[in-house]
Amino acid sequence: MKRTIIAVATFALGCIYAQAREPHASLTDGYIEEIKLYAKMTDNYLASEKAAKNKLIPMVKKDIADQLKDPDSAKFRNVIIKKFDKGTIVCGEYNAKNSYGAYVGYRKFVAGVLAGSVLTKIEKDDPNEIEHNASINFACK
């Protein structure tokens, strides 16, 4: 009986500790490391291209729009260039029409640039992608 109580108490304390940690502490290292890599690559791109910073946001918007069913319907808001870790990323939100012609709601994104090609992570609706979405929120806060 004592062993059962100790096991349950240990489990409960572990759950409380996990919830008390910072949100990003539970993220798989890979999600955050990928965004750090985006940031580093973007800085390399910016260093190699003159006046590339003013082209960064239009490049990202075009890349995201080109991935959509209706690229002309893309609407963007809160798009910014920001420092993350030791580099630069682009954060923002977009909305677009689905196959039925209805807007689906704004989704967050984070992007970087590698040799002129845009790399993006876009917020997903899948409940199994909590860590993926949390990494975007963490990088773009």
Order of helices and strands: HHHEEEEH
Mean pLDDT: 82
Outline the low-pLDDT stretches: 1-24
Radius of gyration, whole Å: 19 Å
Number of helices: 4
Q: Got a strand count? A: 4
Major beta sheet, specifics? 4 strands, antiparallel
Domain module tally: 1
- The protein's oligomeric status is single chain
Helical content class: 40-55%
Q: Note the overall shape.
A: globular
How does the helix and strand content classify structurally? alpha+beta
Order of strands across the main sheet:
1-2-3-4
Strand content: 15-25%
* Ends distance: 47 Å
Question: Could you explain the architecture of this structure?
Answer:
This protein has one domain (27-140). With 141 residues, it is of the alpha+beta class. The protein is globular and about 40 Å long. The chain starts with a helix and ends with a helix. It is 45% helix and 23% strand. The protein has four helices and four strands; from the N terminus they run H-H-H-E-E-E-E-H. The chain has helices at residues 2-20, 29-48, 53-66, 130-140; strands at residues 75-84, 87-95, 107-114, 117-122.
List descriptors.
141 residues, alpha+beta, four-stranded antiparallel beta sheet, 4 helices, globular
Task: Produce the secondary structure layout.
Layout: H1 2-20, H2 29-48, H3 53-66, E1 75-84, E2 87-95, E3 107-114, E4 117-122, H4 130-140
Antiparallel strand pairs: 1-2, 2-3, 3-4
Summarize it.
This protein is of the alpha+beta class and 141 residues long. It has helices at residues 2-20, 29-48, 53-66, 130-140, and strands at residues 75-84, 87-95, 107-114, 117-122.
